[in-house]
Amino acid sequence: MSSQLISSSPPITKIPTPRPTSHRTQIPLHVYKHPAAILLELSTSIKEVHQILPHIIKSNLYTEHLFQTKLLSIFCNHGCIAEAARVFEPIEDKPDVLYYTLLKGYAKHSSLHEALLFFVRMKADSVRPVVYNFTYLLKVCGDKGELRRGKEIHGQLIKNGFSSNVFAMTGVVNLYSKCRQIEEAYKMFDRMPERDLVSWNTIISGFAQNGLAKIALGLVVRMQEEGQRPDSITLVSILPSVANMGSVKIGRSVHGYVLRAGFEGLVNVNTALVDMYSKCGYIRIGRLIFDGMRQRTTVSWNSMIDGYVRSGYAEEAMGIFERMLDEGVDPTEVTIMGAAHACADLGDLDRGIFVHKLSDKLKFGGNVSVMNSLISMYSKCKRVDLAVDIFGKLRGKTLVSWNAMILGFAQNGHVNDALNYFYEMHSRNLRPDTFTMVSVIPALAELSVTRQAKWIHGYCIRSCLDDDIFVMTALVDMYAKCGEIHTARKLFNRMNERHVTTWNAMIDGYGTHGLGKAAIELFNEMQKGTVKPNDVTFLSVLSACSHAGMVEEGRSYFTSMKRDYGIEPALDHYGAMVDLLGRAGRLDEAWNFIQKMPIEPGINVYGAMLGACKIHKNVELGEKAAKKLFALNPDEGGYHVLLANIYATASMWGEVAKVRTIMKKKGLQKTPGCSVVELRNEVHSFYSGTTNHPQSKRIYAFLEELGDKMKAAGYVPDTSSIHDVEDDVKEQLNSTHSERLAIAFGLLNTSDGTPIHVRKNLRVCGDCHTATKYISLVTGREIIVRDMQRFHHFKNGTCSCGDYW
User: Fold this and answer.
1) Cβ contact 575:558 at 8 Å
2) Which PANTHER family does the record match to this protein (predicted)?
3) Of 14, 401, 434, 482, which one has the fewest beta carbons inside 10 Å?
4) Mind listing the pLDDT tens digit for each residue in 114-166?
């Protein structure tokens, strides 16, 4: 360690070994007035000391006690402990003050172990410790969380008669506070015969940092009752507690005290106020204080950036960040993390890359927290490949790093990658936390595989995370998305505490399963409790009404969300209303609703309208909706396909040809239908009309045989959207849609009575929906199909959607 410290310093003149000196030697007057002594006294950097040293040696002043003491102090202050020791060791009859100086240097700039070793040497050399020797050591123990060592120092402190010393005991209070032993800290504080302002600030800060905001605030009141006036340090300690409580009322009281006490010009107090108002949801007041600051530190800028990010104003956060750079303020790691978060929220890849390059320029690549924020940023900007690159190069990966990567994969639809990283993390004996599970569980939900859902549920139980409200909410959502809606409700009922997201997950689950009445009943139950519905709740309710054809109920809830709860409808809510009216066949009403919208309709609104026109074969309104969609998103082939299908249903083959020509010129393609089914721990994928599966011959032969049975039971194929081919070919094209291939494979490879679970990436077409009903009838099997919009439970020739989807 010593050699490293020396090598990291500038080149110096070799320090000679001084002759033994006594601290009792009287220092001549010429020594004090020597130019080298004056220069040494004025030196401000270690480099200047190294430049002066040759003059001191040349003048034979190096052995003088004044120079030795001054050199020792300078080397310690600059963290050059090895050089300080080289000055210290040769001195005979060392004064106690040199021991105290070197101990302080070890405590501040070396390891706790070396500091304690030197403290033991002091005792061996019969040097009696003074109070601040203990406070230095206690501070190091507190900062490093070394409770056991801290208790040993506390014992030595008592043994040396400092148990009633206010400075020493304040250090003890600080030690226990930082080591999360706040009750012990308070015992020490309460036993102090006298307390000064620093003591009060220490215990208040201790309670605040340990998450006990109310007690910290109570102590501020008590300190005033006992005659102590809070200072700026008190306020800076207590304001984060106010922010964590979200109590702007208390925050304003503290702000009032700041003004009355004349602290409004202090940068640390103003920064704490900016942070408090931002976290309490009053970002505009925070900005007013920030703009009024005559002086700002980097922490001030960081607080404003973080405040905007927390409040959902990512663009404003980037504005502050860019202004900070324009004013020449050097960003810190915290700045970069805030800016990366803002870019992630905006999905702004270009500015995100700029933040990354700036981070590299500032050499923050070794900071794991910064790299984790960049991983999250790239993931949210749809560049998970860049996130993987950072993760792969990152040294010292933490659980947060793995969580960020797993979530990034899940958010970008890379479900298998998310699961593989989770398994790898598990193999490295990294214990998952709540965040890990709420990242990986949704990935499993997307696979919609019941077996894996049960496995991860069991894993949560074994990891003792099954009582966590967020994990349980994710499990409820997962079971609902895996078709196990009754299991989801059982878990929901067992929960002792439910968050609004828990209610939303269960209501949405009922909606996607076509159980509109159950969704409404649950929503009514929610309204009777203490948890208030939010915008997502109403979106789930409206969607449930839409899937169940509950038009009037949906209207009522749409009106209620603003009237009764003050929630302004967003584009998604308007889209749900259009979907509700359109599915019910009220197309003119839906179109008029769009025309009267107070906000500009988006893709989701016109997309719902076009889908409804496809269901109800309305060419005129379908063309209007499609025209809007082509303008908003000209590169999406799916809308062109929908319009072509509307024309085909109306036998407008010329128009179908025009749409297909446009698609060909633009290079647009229809998203190929893909259905998956799991069998014996393996997922099998099927695309429409493909023959590359090992069992393709069996599947196609079985479908032909099944088709005969279905027709005998009354099935009539719907080939209205296909033209230019013979009728038998039309039937063949329909019969080889991906979901039918997946269903046939499942039937061939499972025993009688086993339900078939199929997941499709697109909406089930009308003919396949009818065909699956007949398949369930002639085979006696339950078939559960999850398409891009909802679940269909086919059993005994009927579907849970009631043919309304």
Assistant:
1) no
2) PENTATRICOPEPTIDE REPEAT-CONTAINING PROTEIN (PTHR47926), TETRATRICOPEPTIDE-LIKE HELICAL DOMAIN SUPERFAMILY, DYW DOMAIN-CONTAINING PROTEIN (PTHR47926:SF373)
3) 14
4) 899 999 998 888 889 899 899 999 999 999 999 999 999 999 999 999 988 99
Cβ atoms 480, 518 nearer than 8 A: no
Backbone phi and psi for residue 286, each to the nearest 5 degrees, phi listed first: -55, -40
Tokens of 565: 């709860």
C-alpha 740/C-alpha 742 separation (Å) is 5
Distances 644 to 611, 668, 789 between C-alpha atoms, Å: 12, 13, 21
Backbone angles phi, psi at 676, to 5 degrees: -125, 150
Burial code (b: 16+ CB inside 10 Å, e: under 16) for 485-519 equals: bebbbebbeebeebeebbbbbbbbbbbbbbbbebb
Three-state secondary structure readout of 468-515: CHHHHHHHHHHHHHCCCHHHHHHHHHHCCCCCHHHHHHHHHHHHHCCC
Query: Amino acid identity, residue 419?
Result: L
Question: Quick check: 115 and 107 in contact, CB under 8 A?
Answer: yes
Q: Which two tokens stand for residue 409?
A: 């994969």
Contact 410, 418 (CB under 8 A): yes
Coil, helix or strand for 684? strand
Q: Please give the Cα distance from 628 to 595 (Å, whole number).
A: 12
* Cα-based distances in Å from 349 to 346, 365, 410: 9, 19, 19
Q: What is the pLDDT of residues 192-243, one digit of tens each?
A: 988 999 999 999 999 988 888 889 988 998 999 888 899 999 999 989 988 8
d(CA 379, CA 414): 11
Coil, strand or helix at 702 = helix
At residue 745, the 3 state secondary structure works out as helix
Residue 117 identity (one-letter amino acid):
L
